[in-house]
Design brief:
Elements lengths: L7 E2 L6 E2 L8 E2 L6 E5 L2 E5 L1 E3 L10 E20 L17 E9 L5 H13 L14 E2 L9 H13 L6 E23 L2 E4 L2
The structure holds zinc ion (ZN).
């Protein structure tokens, strides 16, 4: 077995990029463009960084989330009570379809925590201002590839609605990810846990 060291270069400005950690995405220090690889080819990724609104003492990190613009259409649903329990608020008026912004954790996190974060940040979208990187804060690696988001969006869609066991009997739907970007939300260490700093 041989290890091949590949020099990563920014697809935008051609500057060499030094990868400091195992990460699915690379940010160019020179021009700020983020890219990943799909089928061995560089692909540009849209991203934004949320501003810090709570000045915490120390230990601040950015956690990556895939923010998806999702269009959905519910073709058939059998729900006790006759309406969608949580997804209902995303439906367009007098329509079986709607649009929602999903926030999917893209870092290494336990399944229960993943579910909790994805649901809470999707049902109650975080309010944040966009700001430049704070380079003093670390960036937690993104481990979810851009091509995995459709599958994860389907999972979250069903999970949100199926939370109360026994209520949803059937859900037949179409779901399409219209666009996506990586959002880095700042967190800080408080005791043994991470608290939002945005
Ligand atoms: Zn560049």
């Amino acid at each position: 077995m041989t290890t091949r060291v590949v020099q990563i270069k920014c697809p935008e400005c051609n500057s060499p990029i030094t990868a400091r950690q195992v990460d699915m995405v690379f940010v160019c220090d020179a021009c700020g463009v983020m890219h990943t690889y799909a089928d061995g080819k560089p692909v540009r990724i849209e991203y934004e960084t949320a501003a810090v609104s709570r000045e915490a003492a120390d230990g601040r990190v950015y956690l990556p989330f895939w923010k998806l613009d999702v269009a959905f259409n519910v073709k058939r649903s059998k729900v006790k009570g006759g309406y969608l329990y949580k997804l209902g608020k995303f439906l367009d008026r007098d329509s079986s379809g709607g649009r929602m912004a999903m926030m999917l954790p893209a870092f290494d996190v336990a399944p229960e925590k993943y579910k909790e974060l994805a649901e809470s940040l999707t049902l109650e979208p975080p309010a944040y201002a966009v700001a430049p990187w704070d380079r003093a804060a670390g960036r937690v690696p993104c481990i979810v590839a851009a091509g995995q988001t459709q599958m994860m969006a389907d999972f979250l869609f069903v999970t949100i609605e199926a939370e109360k066991p026994g209520i949803m009997q059937e859900l037949d739907y179409d779901l399409e990810v219209k666009s996506q970007k990586l959002v880095y939300l700042p967190y800080y260490k408080a005791g043994g846990r991470l608290e939002p700093a945005y």
